[in-house]
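Friendly challenge for the regulars: who can give me the structure tokens for this chain first? No prize, just bragging rights.
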Amino acid sequence: MSAMYDLYQPGDSWLHRLDPRSKLISVVCASALWLLYTNLWMMIVALAMVHVALASAHIARERVAWVWKVTLPTMLMISLLWVVSYRGTGPAILSFWFIRVTAYNLAQGVTMALRISALAFTIFTWLFTTDQATLIHSLVSLGFPYAWGLTLAMALRYLPTMASILRMISDAQQARALDLAKGNPLQRARAYIPIIVAMLITALRTAESLSRALESRALGAPGRRRTTLRPLHFRRSGVAWVVSSVVLTAALFWAHYALGLGADPLRLLR
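First reply, four minutes later:
Bragging rights claimed.
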């Protein structure tokens, strides 16, 4: 299955064994730090740290390359728009018309782009090392409503199924002489109508079957205490990881606001 739909990569690394709730809390803390700091060198260090974590979890290089492939266009667009839109201070490296490129706004643009990549890799590190069932279970155990967790689990489960059905219907229609590449954009969009109709019928049938299956299992019945096959328990390693993540995040927040750490795109301290 494509990495686009099946993100989890089975393994037995320390990240795979770590409590999923600990991983989620550390992802939230790291994401808050990446959003807080605007320093180019700190973003580079953040990306390096995430890649070291991925390598230690033995995540396939193809998956890492896929994340870069997905995020790179957005990174390039953000860098370009930032440099074009914001006039930097200091001596100009390049200046023409309304565009003024300086080392300052160039560093800002690259930092913003690297921030997007750091956030993406941080989240994908969690998704690559946590299977879907455990991921949903961890969210529910942290207070996420069960109905929401079930909805998310079904979306993750049926996304690859519906994508496969879409490909089958498209191939079947094209085998019946449906041309999806002929004509202008409006004509090509109209050519997809038979595929969309078939997809809607399939989706409605799937929804009806799924609703009957959930109803037969007494989903939502009052007075029932829900149990789990593999309950989650915090171990010492998970507690230590959470405490370390929160303390480190709090210390870096203090350093940013009290000492100006990472507030400047080029200098670590103001």
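The beta strands are 92-96, 99-102. The chain has two domains: 14-130+234-259, 145-216. Your move, everyone else.
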